[in-house]
Amino acid sequence: MLYSLLISFIDTFSFLNVFKYLTVRTGLSMFTAMLVVFIVGTPFINYFSRKQIHNPIREDGPKDHIIKKIGTPTMGGLLILLGLFSGILLWGDLLNPFNWFLIFIVFSFGALGAFDDLKKIKSKSSHGLSPKLKLILQIILGLLGIAILTYLAEPADLKKLYIPFFKNVIINLSWFFVPFYLFVIVGSSNAVNLTDGLDGLATVPVILVASCFAFISYVTGNIVFSEYLQIPYIEGVGEVAVFCGAIIGACLGFLWFNAPPAKIFMGDTGSLALGGSLGAVSIITKHEIVLAITGGLFVFEAFSVIVQVISFKLTGKRIFKMAPIHHHFEKKGWHESTVVIRFWIISIILAMIGLATLKLR
Q1: Which of 16, 49, 60, 139 is the most exposed place for a label (fewest CB within 10 A)?
Q2: What pLDDT is recorded for position 66?
């Protein structure tokens, strides 16, 4: 909104041309989102603490959690969403159709997460919506989002799947692009949700992945850079960098309060929204496989849960001491901060590998 207002005065004040630069608006979006979270964070946490808005801790989790984390406010995802929307609505080009697809995904998945959090709080249980119902609702929201994207974007581009490390390997998904995109959005949403189990564990990897895709969207939307890197050029997709900047800023601000020991948890409100939005960004930029690389930690966490469930149902035995896998290492005696920092290091390495795919072709 502010961007549109400033642009309208360019003929009168030529210095306002600076706001046409994606890099400037991405930086402003990031700073705005971070500042909003910083300002609102403390009163928000104090209010939620007084109202005792917190989730019961899993009884089967590490004993340390039951003692240290009980009573910590949840639904901090509302803080993240407030910062994110402040950044994108002020500095994003709302005439760009990609923005509305992203706004729908982050808002709808955030609303679903908030409903799930509220159910847990009301029932005073760590179990909210049933996994089956939550998945069904995610699928419905994902399909609605894909329908919006199909209406706004070029159908021929949507059906192409580009393979990293190869110049000319393009798979035509045909009608299969719908279930594939649905898998990316819902899978990414749930993977971030599963990772969000320790203080700051999910927040930093989200920042890293969003940073990678801010760069990817910028070069994908620039005809010169995309030609040089031999990646697909998609008109208008550079605007996604502003959205990614808002994610980075909101998460940086939230990390101030979420770093060990956390003063607040993001809850499903934040994790479902952030995961879904990262999946949506990868679809728009046509780098879905790169998301699996840069967000490899999320994949690893989700995979550990799948393997644990399958193993227990087929053999009655558990492969890990506890799933997701970050709890496995806690059960083995690793301190929480050790698990978090080492997983952050893994995320940094994966992010660098993901960016390397842009040039290694």
Answers
A1: 60
A2: 55
Question: 162: part of which helix (H) or strand (E)?
Answer: strand 160-162
Torsions phi, psi for 303 (to 5 deg): -60, -40
CA trace torsion 86, 135, 295, 321 (10° rounding): 130
Q: What pLDDT is recorded for position 240?
A: 96
Listed residue (50, 90, 100, 101) closest to 71, CA to CA = 50
d(CA 191, CA 298): 5
Q: Where are the domains of the chain?
A: 22-356
| Under 8 Å between Cβ of 340 and 198 | yes
Q: In sequence order, which residues have a C-beta less than 8 Å from that of residue 110 and are 6 or more positions away?
A: 77, 81, 269, 270, 272, 273
DSSP 8-state secondary structure symbol assigned to residue 171: E
Instruction: Write down the pLDDT at residue 3.
Output: 66
Task: Note whether 81 and 89 are within 8 A (CB).
Answer: no
Cβ contact 185:142 at 8 Å = yes
CA 195 → CA 143, 294, 300, 306, distances in Å? 24, 14, 9, 13
d(CA 122, CA 128): 9
Cβ 44 vs Cβ 77: under 8 Å:
no
The pLDDT tens digits for 23-76 are 999 999 999 999 999 999 999 999 988 877 776 665 555 666 555 667 788 899
Rounded CA-CA distance 206/246 in Å is 12
Other CB atoms within 10 Å distance of the CB of residue 307: 15
- Report DSSP state, residue 54: B
Torsion sign over Cα 305, 336, 190, 353: negative
Flag whether the pTM goes above 0.85. Answer: yes
Report the sign of the C-alpha dihedral through residues 173, 175, 181, 187, in that order: negative
